[in-house]
Amino acid sequence: MLTLAFIIVALAGYLLGSIPTGFLVAKAKGVDIRTVGSKNMGATNVFRVLGKGPGILVLLVDALKGSAAVFFARYFVVNVIVVTDCGECFWNQDLAITLGGFCSILGHNYTCWLAFKGGKGIATSAGVYLTLAPLACLIALAAWILTFIVTRYVSIASIVAAVALPTAVLLMQTNAALSVVTLIIGGLAIYKHKANIQRLIAGTENRFHFKKPKAES
User: How many separate domains does the chain show?
Assistant: First the structure.
Protein backbone atom coordinates (compact mmCIF):
# COMPACT_ATOMS: atom_id res chain seq x y z
CA MET A 1 0.00 0.00 0.00
CA LEU A 2 2.76 2.41 0.91
CA THR A 3 4.69 1.72 -2.31
CA LEU A 4 1.53 2.25 -4.38
CA ALA A 5 0.89 5.54 -2.59
CA PHE A 6 4.40 6.76 -3.46
CA ILE A 7 3.92 5.75 -7.10
CA ILE A 8 0.62 7.64 -7.28
CA VAL A 9 2.13 10.76 -5.71
CA ALA A 10 5.11 10.66 -8.10
CA LEU A 11 2.95 10.06 -11.19
CA ALA A 12 0.45 12.78 -10.27
CA GLY A 13 3.26 15.24 -9.63
CA TYR A 14 4.91 14.43 -12.95
CA LEU A 15 1.69 14.73 -14.95
CA LEU A 16 0.80 18.06 -13.34
CA GLY A 17 4.26 19.40 -14.07
CA SER A 18 4.29 18.02 -17.59
CA ILE A 19 1.51 20.35 -18.79
CA PRO A 20 3.44 22.41 -21.40
CA THR A 21 1.98 25.80 -20.50
CA GLY A 22 4.29 27.94 -22.63
CA PHE A 23 3.80 25.73 -25.67
CA LEU A 24 0.00 25.74 -25.30
CA VAL A 25 -0.28 29.51 -24.74
CA ALA A 26 1.93 30.24 -27.73
CA LYS A 27 0.13 27.67 -29.87
CA ALA A 28 -3.18 29.38 -29.11
CA LYS A 29 -1.67 32.48 -30.72
CA GLY A 30 -0.41 30.56 -33.74
CA VAL A 31 3.23 30.41 -32.62
CA ASP A 32 5.41 27.37 -31.99
CA ILE A 33 7.47 28.73 -29.11
CA ARG A 34 10.06 25.99 -29.69
CA THR A 35 11.11 27.62 -32.96
CA VAL A 36 11.39 31.30 -31.99
CA GLY A 37 13.48 33.39 -29.63
CA SER A 38 15.58 31.18 -27.37
CA LYS A 39 13.36 28.23 -28.39
CA ASN A 40 12.61 27.60 -24.71
CA MET A 41 9.05 27.03 -23.51
CA GLY A 42 9.46 29.02 -20.31
CA ALA A 43 7.86 32.30 -19.31
CA THR A 44 10.90 34.41 -20.25
CA ASN A 45 10.85 33.39 -23.90
CA VAL A 46 7.05 33.69 -24.05
CA PHE A 47 7.35 37.20 -22.57
CA ARG A 48 9.96 38.18 -25.18
CA VAL A 49 8.08 36.72 -28.13
CA LEU A 50 4.42 37.28 -27.25
CA GLY A 51 4.46 40.06 -24.68
CA LYS A 52 3.70 40.75 -21.04
CA GLY A 53 0.23 39.16 -20.77
CA PRO A 54 1.10 35.70 -22.12
CA GLY A 55 4.44 35.75 -20.29
CA ILE A 56 2.84 36.46 -16.91
CA LEU A 57 0.17 33.83 -17.56
CA VAL A 58 2.79 31.17 -18.28
CA LEU A 59 4.81 32.20 -15.22
CA LEU A 60 1.81 31.91 -12.90
CA VAL A 61 0.49 28.64 -14.30
CA ASP A 62 3.94 27.03 -14.26
CA ALA A 63 4.30 28.03 -10.59
CA LEU A 64 0.80 26.76 -9.82
CA LYS A 65 1.70 23.37 -11.31
CA GLY A 66 4.38 22.95 -8.66
CA SER A 67 2.12 24.11 -5.83
CA ALA A 68 -0.71 21.86 -7.01
CA ALA A 69 1.59 18.84 -7.03
CA VAL A 70 2.63 19.53 -3.43
CA PHE A 71 -0.96 20.11 -2.27
CA PHE A 72 -2.10 16.89 -3.94
CA ALA A 73 0.75 14.93 -2.36
CA ARG A 74 -0.03 16.41 1.06
CA TYR A 75 -3.73 15.60 0.73
CA PHE A 76 -2.97 12.09 -0.46
CA VAL A 77 -0.48 11.51 2.35
CA VAL A 78 -2.97 12.59 5.01
CA ASN A 79 -5.74 10.44 3.59
CA VAL A 80 -3.74 7.37 2.56
CA ILE A 81 -0.26 7.08 4.06
CA VAL A 82 -1.11 8.32 7.54
CA VAL A 83 -4.02 5.92 7.90
CA THR A 84 -1.87 2.92 7.01
CA ASP A 85 -0.18 0.94 9.73
CA CYS A 86 3.27 2.42 9.40
CA GLY A 87 5.93 2.87 12.04
CA GLU A 88 7.64 5.70 10.14
CA CYS A 89 4.62 7.72 9.06
CA PHE A 90 6.10 11.16 9.67
CA TRP A 91 9.23 10.36 7.69
CA ASN A 92 7.11 8.91 4.91
CA GLN A 93 4.91 12.02 4.88
CA ASP A 94 7.91 14.28 4.34
CA LEU A 95 9.34 12.01 1.68
CA ALA A 96 6.07 11.60 -0.24
CA ILE A 97 5.28 15.32 -0.25
CA THR A 98 8.82 16.16 -1.37
CA LEU A 99 8.61 13.47 -4.04
CA GLY A 100 5.41 14.99 -5.45
CA GLY A 101 7.03 18.40 -5.79
CA PHE A 102 10.24 17.00 -7.26
CA CYS A 103 8.36 15.00 -9.88
CA SER A 104 6.39 18.08 -10.94
CA ILE A 105 9.69 19.82 -11.70
CA LEU A 106 10.87 16.78 -13.66
CA GLY A 107 7.58 16.83 -15.55
CA HIS A 108 8.07 20.47 -16.49
CA ASN A 109 11.68 19.97 -17.55
CA TYR A 110 11.04 16.71 -19.43
CA THR A 111 7.41 16.71 -20.50
CA CYS A 112 6.14 13.47 -22.00
CA TRP A 113 3.84 15.43 -24.30
CA LEU A 114 6.70 17.02 -26.27
CA ALA A 115 9.28 14.26 -26.66
CA PHE A 116 10.55 14.80 -23.09
CA LYS A 117 11.77 18.31 -23.86
CA GLY A 118 10.60 21.14 -21.65
CA GLY A 119 11.56 24.25 -19.73
CA LYS A 120 14.17 24.96 -17.09
CA GLY A 121 11.94 24.51 -14.07
CA ILE A 122 12.50 27.84 -12.33
CA ALA A 123 8.84 28.90 -12.04
CA THR A 124 7.67 25.39 -11.18
CA SER A 125 10.40 25.09 -8.55
CA ALA A 126 9.24 28.41 -7.08
CA GLY A 127 5.71 27.04 -6.83
CA VAL A 128 6.94 23.91 -5.10
CA TYR A 129 9.10 25.74 -2.58
CA LEU A 130 6.61 28.52 -1.86
CA THR A 131 4.47 25.66 -0.57
CA LEU A 132 7.14 23.45 1.02
CA ALA A 133 9.68 25.98 2.32
CA PRO A 134 8.32 29.50 1.82
CA LEU A 135 11.04 31.39 3.68
CA ALA A 136 13.85 29.63 1.79
CA CYS A 137 11.97 30.32 -1.45
CA LEU A 138 11.62 34.01 -0.60
CA ILE A 139 15.38 34.20 0.06
CA ALA A 140 16.05 32.64 -3.34
CA LEU A 141 13.50 34.98 -4.94
CA ALA A 142 15.20 37.99 -3.35
CA ALA A 143 18.53 36.75 -4.73
CA TRP A 144 16.93 36.38 -8.17
CA ILE A 145 15.42 39.88 -8.11
CA LEU A 146 18.60 41.55 -6.89
CA THR A 147 20.76 39.78 -9.47
CA PHE A 148 18.29 40.56 -12.24
CA ILE A 149 18.14 44.25 -11.33
CA VAL A 150 21.94 44.48 -11.34
CA THR A 151 22.63 42.40 -14.48
CA ARG A 152 19.35 42.33 -16.47
CA TYR A 153 20.20 38.72 -17.30
CA VAL A 154 17.40 36.28 -16.44
CA SER A 155 19.82 33.38 -16.83
CA ILE A 156 22.33 34.73 -14.30
CA ALA A 157 19.52 35.55 -11.86
CA SER A 158 18.13 32.02 -12.22
CA ILE A 159 21.54 30.42 -11.67
CA VAL A 160 22.10 32.54 -8.54
CA ALA A 161 18.65 31.52 -7.27
CA ALA A 162 19.48 27.88 -8.00
CA VAL A 163 22.45 28.21 -5.64
CA ALA A 164 20.63 30.31 -3.03
CA LEU A 165 17.64 27.95 -2.67
CA PRO A 166 19.48 24.77 -1.62
CA THR A 167 21.78 26.84 0.59
CA ALA A 168 18.78 28.36 2.38
CA VAL A 169 17.04 25.00 2.68
CA LEU A 170 20.14 23.32 4.11
CA LEU A 171 20.51 26.07 6.71
CA MET A 172 16.85 26.31 7.68
CA GLN A 173 15.22 22.89 7.22
CA THR A 174 15.35 19.68 9.27
CA ASN A 175 13.68 17.67 6.51
CA ALA A 176 16.53 15.53 5.17
CA ALA A 177 14.58 14.43 2.09
CA LEU A 178 13.84 18.04 1.14
CA SER A 179 17.48 19.06 1.63
CA VAL A 180 18.78 16.28 -0.64
CA VAL A 181 16.12 16.87 -3.31
CA THR A 182 16.78 20.63 -3.28
CA LEU A 183 20.46 20.03 -3.98
CA ILE A 184 19.46 17.87 -6.95
CA ILE A 185 16.97 20.46 -8.20
CA GLY A 186 19.52 23.26 -7.90
CA GLY A 187 22.06 21.24 -9.86
CA LEU A 188 19.46 20.36 -12.49
CA ALA A 189 18.44 24.02 -12.88
CA ILE A 190 22.06 25.03 -13.47
CA TYR A 191 22.51 22.15 -15.94
CA LYS A 192 19.41 23.27 -17.86
CA HIS A 193 21.08 26.68 -18.26
CA LYS A 194 24.16 25.23 -19.96
CA ALA A 195 23.33 26.93 -23.28
CA ASN A 196 22.89 30.25 -21.46
CA ILE A 197 26.23 29.77 -19.71
CA GLN A 198 27.89 29.17 -23.06
CA ARG A 199 26.33 32.35 -24.46
CA LEU A 200 27.36 34.31 -21.36
CA ILE A 201 30.96 33.18 -21.83
CA ALA A 202 30.79 34.06 -25.52
CA GLY A 203 29.18 37.44 -24.75
CA THR A 204 26.10 36.68 -26.87
CA GLU A 205 23.49 36.24 -24.12
CA ASN A 206 20.61 38.74 -24.45
CA ARG A 207 19.70 41.07 -21.60
CA PHE A 208 16.04 41.32 -20.72
CA HIS A 209 14.14 44.42 -21.86
CA PHE A 210 10.61 45.34 -20.82
CA LYS A 211 9.34 46.02 -24.30
CA LYS A 212 6.42 44.69 -26.24
CA PRO A 213 7.40 42.47 -29.16
CA LYS A 214 7.35 44.23 -32.51
CA ALA A 215 4.47 43.31 -34.74
CA GLU A 216 5.45 41.42 -37.86
CA SER A 217 4.76 43.19 -41.14
Answer: 1
